[in-house]
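hey so u asked for the seq, here:
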Amino acid sequence: MKKLNIRFLWLICLTLSLCLLTGAAAYAHGVAEGDKGYIQEITGVHIVPFIYLGAKHMFTGYDHILFLLAVIFFLYRLKDIAIYVSLFALGHSTTMLLGVYFGTNISGYLIDAIIGLSVAYKALDNLGAFRRWFGFQPNTKVATLIFGLFHGFGLATKIQDYEVSKDGLLANLLAFNVGV
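ran it, structure tokens below
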């Protein structure tokens, strides 16, 4: 039990530190100004830059980092970590691609609230709250995929605000998802 409390305290400290260090920039799916300008101005297919932007998005997205840290917190085998990260990326990539390509738009505020709840959900899951409160453990793989879907909708909504050129859009979105 003491080991669980120490890990929980470290997770809380890490979360608070990230929030304090990032301030207003910690909104889910924020895009750097330079990247925003690039996305808005280009036309045609740009594979390598979009692979880079996809990788950058996953490593600088505070919402992704917090959620995935909570997901892999108790995982010890690299295989398990790869499975969960892949499920999240699959969900994220699917809704981002389909949301942008088909123009599906959901309120960014609603998505950001769900993204925040996904971090809280996983923290409660790690503490065993659902088993104690409801007598069962939700399927963590399914939950990771579902929350990945919501995170992807957050980015899709943001990208649609930028009025991106349709020329090369599908190839660029696929390249972005390769980076993710």
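The chain has one domain: 2-179. The radius of gyration is 17 Å.
lmk if thats what u needed
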